[in-house]
Design a protein that fits this description.
The chain has 473 residues and is α/β, with parallel strands linked by helices. The chain has 16 helices and 16 strands. The protein has two domains: 29-324 and 435-471, Alkaline Phosphatase, subunit A (3-Layer(aba) Sandwich); 333-428, no CATH class.
């Protein structure tokens, strides 16, 4: 009888312990939330970067990026309120607020009448510190979706003036595209508005680190204001250039300092989209890899606080309709390692050559430039047809003083630079459907507290709702 009673007591204790543990797991919330948005990154941009890394090392297959190793991997649809193919404003709004809207609208409903509030706003209301970081301008569509409410993504000044109204703790990126109102000169400069709202504007890491302890709210930008549109592409970056990984690391330190409540940090890798708009495969893959370096900063933090941290990685849409292959059963991604500059930077080098030689540029000059920057002839062998095509474009574009640049959404390129990138794409066996967005599914990866909620197919509007649930905003 005593033995039976002893067994019953043990069973009851076990049931109570299991119930308590289950309750603790149920109540576990994400204190720290990282939300990474890889603008323009579809499945093939990600997988292509992994193939590129493998082929550089002489292997067939993939070398997984850090985030593709996360325990939860899924995908999401991206259509907007009225379009199968979304723009970044509508997609950003969906990822930020959990609601669909019309293409072109930022943080408002599809009639542009009512504001939609983001998961970042909910985090701030829940007493969390909040940071918004991007590799492009701070007033660009995706970051703007987390703090602004405007009927058009093109209302850059108005978007910027919405920024201080949130009270978010930190913003970071390249700069602002429109410091002053275009039509009304009586409107205050955006930097004066930020200062009056208690924000300290810091340019470059040295200034940021020097004044970190003196700022309650800060806006971190690159040191030079020459290009407020974006940080440099990873493939073009100089050692002195600010990187997305550095911005992310500094944001973590800033948000976590003297903070017992936790934080929410959104980080956008905006130039994956730009490179894909240019159909520049090598630059696109470098941007995806660069995004992974930013994500590594969050992974390192997660390792310190695994029971309190959630990391989400996704994209707002796919750009370019990228395909890994051109019909043959092989790829040659290892050739892409010999491309040393983006399409934009190659254009600038050709333009400089024009200027230096007053448009009297020889074919040998062009060969030397492409050999250094694209690896052509030296490391990357060209067929007779490919070389002949380059010569034709060279002849056409250097026969007069003026040349017509090809315009894309974020760039204008020299004909010879464009043809060089297209030849490199063909050599690598990368093809593109367009220079715009597509309706392709985008990946979703998750690790940490509540990651299991992100299993299975979902819509982009589901993601911020699941984050809010996990973090108890």
């Amino acid at each position: 009888m005593k033995k039976i009673s002893y067994v019953i007591v043990l069973l009851l204790a076990a049931v109570c312990l299991f119930s308590q543990c289950k309750q603790e797991r149920k109540e576990q919330r994400a204190k720290y939330v990282f939300y990474f948005i890889a603008d323009g990154m579809g499945i093939n941009q990600m997988n292509g970067a992994e193939v590129f890394l493998a082929e550089k090392n002489g292997k067939i297959g993939v070398e997984q990026l850090n985030f593709s190793k996360f325990p939860v991997a899924s995908f999401a649809t991206t259509y907007s309120k009225y379009n199968s193919v979304t723009c970044s404003a509508a997609a950003g709004t969906a990822l930020a607020t959990g609601s669909k809207t019309k293409n072109g609208i930022v943080g408002m409903d599809s009639l542009a009448k009512n504001p939609l509030y983001s998961v970042a706003v909910k985090a701030k209301r829940a007493n969390k510190k909040v940071g918004i970081i991007t590799s492009v301008s701070i007033d660009h569509a995706t970051p703007a979706s987390f703090y602004a409410h405007q009927k058009s993504r093109g209302m850059l000044y108005e978007i910027a003036t919405d920024l201080p109204k949130t009270g978010f703790d930190l913003y970071g990126g390249a700069g602002f595209l429109q410091e002053n109102h275009k039509k009304d000169s009586s409107c205050a400069n955006i930097y004066d508005i930020l200062k009056d709202s208690g924000y300290v504007v810091l340019r470059g890491l040295a200034e940021f680190e020097a004044k970190l302890g003196k700022a309650n709210k800060a806006v971190l930008m690159q040191e030079s204001n020459e290009n407020p549109q974006s940080l440099s592409y990873a493939i073009d970056r100089d050692p002195s250039d600010l990187s997305l990984a550095q911005l992310t690391r500094e944001a973590i330190d800033f948000l976590n300092a003297d903070n017992t409540e936790g934080f929410f940090l959104m980080v956008e890798g905006g130039k994956i989209d730009w490179a894909a708009h240019d159909n520049d495969a090598a630059t696109t893959f470098h941007e995806v890899i660069d995004m992974a370096e930013a994500i590594q900063q969050a992974i390192d933090f997660y390792k310190e606080y695994p029971d309190e941290t959630l990391i989400i990685v996704t994209a707002d849409h796919e750009t370019g309709g990228m395909a890994l292959g051109v019909g043959t059963y092989s790829l040659n991604f290892k050739a892409l390692q010999h491309q040393k500059v983006s399409l934009g930077q190659l254009t600038e080098k050709i333009k400089q050559l024009r200027k230096d030689q007053k448009n009297k540029v020889s074919w040998e000059d062009i060969q030397a430039l492409l050999a250094v920057n694209m690896g052509f002839w030296d490391s990357v062998k060209l067929t007779k047809e490919q070389e002949a095509k380059l010569k034709i474009v060279y002849t056409e574009s250097f026969q007069g003083k003026d040349v017509t640049l090809e315009k894309r959404l974020y760039s204008s390129s020299e004909p010879l630079a464009r043809e060089s990138i297209e030849i490199m794409n063909r050599i690598a066996s990368v093809s593109w459907a367009s220079g715009g967005h597509s309706a392709s599914l985008v990946p979703v990866f998750a690790i940490g507290v509540g990651a299991e909620l992100f299993q299975g197919r979902m819509d982009n509007t589901d993601i911020p709702k699941k984050i809010a649930k996990t973090a108890n905003y």
